[in-house]
Amino acid sequence: MYVVARHHHRLLLLLAVLLYGAATGAAAAGGGPGGDDDGALLDLLQRVQSEALRAFGPRGFDPKLYVDMPLAAGADPGAAAAELPPAGGGPAPSRGEMGAFLARYLAPAGSDLAAADPPDLALPEPRGFLPRVQSGAARAWAREVHAMWWNLTRRVAPGVAAARHTLLPLPGRAVVPGSGYRELYCWDSYWVVRGLLVSKMYETAKEVVLNLLSLVERYGFVLNGARSYYTNRRVMVRDNQGQIHSLTRYQAMWNKPRPESATTDEQMASKLSSEVDKEKFYRQVASAAESGNPPDMTTLATTYIIPVDLNAFIYKMERDIEFFAELTGEHTTSKEFSETAKARQIAIDSILWNSEMEQWLDYWLPADVQCQGVYQWNSKSQNRNIFASNFIPIWLNAYHHSGVMRSLKASGLLHSSGIAASLLNTGQQWDFPNGWAPLQHLIVEGLVNCGSAEAREFAEDIATRWVRTNYAAYKESGVMYEKYDVEVCGRSGGSGEYKHQTGFGWSNGVVLSFLEEFGWPRGKEIVCS
C-alpha cells in the first residue's frame, strides 16, 4: 500500500473532509463571503486594477496584485475612490500618477503576511527522512526540496481586518503554494500536507488543517483561497434502465468578472455583443474546472459538464465523512453518507463509465438543462476527448474495471516526462503538453493501491519520469515549478492566464511522496535519459 503512516491517516482523512466542504460549497455558491465593507473595498481595488492596466499597460500585468493590496495605514478609502477617474471614462493616469496613488492609499500586496519560521523544520533533514533514497544526488536534492518549506510558510499579520484587507485572518501558520501567491489555497493544501508529512513536519501540517477548519466555522465551507473575493451542484440523469442518478457539476452563482482577474475577464468578454452573453461567460469562467479549456475562452461551457474528477473526489470525501462520523458515534450521519457514497459510485459507473474506451468520461448536459428536471442519458453526450482526469477514479481504490490500466497506457497521455493533462493542444494551461503534480500523484497512488505487481511497476515508471523532470528543471533553474512540459525533460510548463509560478507547494509534496514510496537506489540514474 502507498506509504502513509497510520498515525497520519486521520489527519489526511480530516483534510479530505474539509475539501469535501470546498468541493460541494465552492461548486454551488459564488461571490464573496463578507459584508458591505468587504464589497466597498473590493469595488475600490477593482477600479484600481483597471486604472493600473491603463497606466502601466498589459505587458507583464498581474491583475491579482491589485486586489491583494491592503489599504495603507490611515488611508481613507472614500478619498481614494474619489481620486480615481470615473468608471469607464476620463483620461488614463500616467505611470507616475498611478505610482503615487498606490503609494498614498495602498500597502504592497503581501505586506499583510508575516514570516513564520516553521518550528518543526529539521535541517538538513529530519530523523527517518526518506530511508529508501540511497542515491547521493537524489538525497541531496530531496534535502533542498525539504528546506523549501521554510520559504513557503507564512502567518497572517496581526490586526488584519476585512474592511482594510481582502486577506482573511487565520489562526495558524499557512503554507502558500508558490511565488505568485499570498494566501492559503484549499486544493493545494492536500499535496502540501502530504509533503509536510514526509518532512516529519507534523505541527505545521496540523496548523494547515486547523486553518481550513477555521474557514468552515466562519463560512460553512472551505473557500478556494483565504481571500474575501473567493467563495462558490447536483444534476439528475436517468440511465437506459430507467434508474435516476444524482451527480455533481461546477456552477458558480456569479455573473461578474472574477476580482482577481477582472481586467482579463473584461477583455475576453469584450468579444461578446450582449450583456446577457457577457454574464453567461463570467459564470462559465468562474465555474471553470480542471478540464481542458477551449482555445477561445469565451466558448467555455463548464456548467454543462458533469466532470469525472469532481465526482470522484466527492465520492472519496463522502466515504471519509462516513468513517469519521462512525468514529465519533454519529451513526445516523455515518449511515447517511454511506448511502450517499454508494449512490454516487453507482452513478459514476452508470453515467460516466465507457466500456468501449475502458475509462470514465465527462458528460455533456444540454444547454437547456437549467429548465429540465431529469435528463435522459445518451452515449453521444459522453465527452470522448481524453483527459488525465478520466482516470482519477483509479485513486479511489473502489473501481475494478478490467482494462483501465491498459486504456491509460494506450491513451497517448503518458510521455517521456509524465502524464499530460489532456491530448488537446489548445494553448490553455490545463491542456497538452502540460503535466501537473496532483494528476501524477492521484494516478500513481491509485495504481499502487491496486495491489498488483504490474500496476506498481507502471506506477513507479510514471513516478520516475516525473521525478527526473522535476530534478532536471531544478538543477538548471534552482526552482520547483507549478507545472511541467511532459514532452521535454526539465522544461517548465507554460500557457494559461498568468506567468510561470515557482515554489511550489504541490510539486514539492508530490516529489517527496514519490521518493518516500519508491525510494531511489544508489545505481539508478536521476538525470534525464
UniProtKB/TrEMBL annotation:
InterPro entries linked: 6-hairpin_glycosidase_sf, 6hp_glycosidase-like_sf, Glyco_hydro_37, Glyco_hydro_37_CS
UniProtKB keywords: Glycosidase, Hydrolase, Signal
Name used for this protein in its record: Trehalase
Catalytic reaction list: alpha,alpha-trehalose + H2O = alpha-D-glucose + beta-D-glucose
Family per record: Belongs to the glycosyl hydrolase 37 family.
One protein family per Pfam: Trehalase
GO molecular function per UniProt: alpha,alpha-trehalase activity
Signal sequence interval, chain numbering: 1-27
Keyword Hydrolase found: yes
GO term, biological process aspect, one: trehalose catabolic process
EC numbers for this chain: 3.2.1.28
UniProt KW Signal keyword: yes
SUPFAM superfamilies xrefs: Six-hairpin glycosidases (SSF48208)
